[in-house]
TrEMBL record:
It comes from the Bacteria. This is L-rhamnose mutarotase. It comes from Klenkia brasiliensis. One of its GO terms (molecular function) is racemase and epimerase activity, acting on carbohydrates and derivatives. PANTHER family: L-RHAMNOSE MUTAROTASE (PTHR34389:SF2). GO terms for biological process: rhamnose catabolic process. SUPFAM superfamilies: Dimeric alpha+beta barrel.
Length: 119
């Protein structure tokens, strides 16, 4: 299953509210995400509001569309939208970042006799 990474920008003056809402996401929203194919979905937040999301998902666009089609997502987005810098908080803005380095992949490509770690 491919791993995706994306960024969004939370308004710096709304960080506490963003954190509080994600401390207890609505159960029906959690189920909508899982039902749409989101796996191992994590969000990381910097003090300046940069939000980095990672997830295992077969097809990001399809998974986003499946979640967006649910009633609970419409309610969640309506409540969460004001917490984002305009133009960065809607579901369509989760464009994946390009992977430029993968330690495990490069280690796997090494000659099997090459030690993986320095003593």
């Amino acid at each position: 299953m491919p791993r995706v990474c994306f960024t969004l920008q939370v308004r710096p003056d709304r960080l506490s509210e963003y954190r509080a809402r994600h401390a207890a996401v609505w159960p029906e929203m959690l189920c909508a995400l899982r039902g749409a194919g989101w796996r191992d979905y994590q969000l990381f937040l910097r003090p300046d509001g940069l939000l980095v999301g990672t997830a295992d998902v077969d097809d990001l666009a399809r998974a986003q569309a499946a979640v967006a089609a649910t009633e609970v997502s419409a309610r969640w987005e309506a409540e969460m939208g004001p917490l984002f810098v305009p133009g960065t908080g809607d579901g369509g803005s989760k464009a994946p970042l390009d992977l430029v380095f993968d330690l495990d992949a490069q280690l796997a490509a090494l000659d099997p006799t090459t030690p993986e770690e320095n003593p």
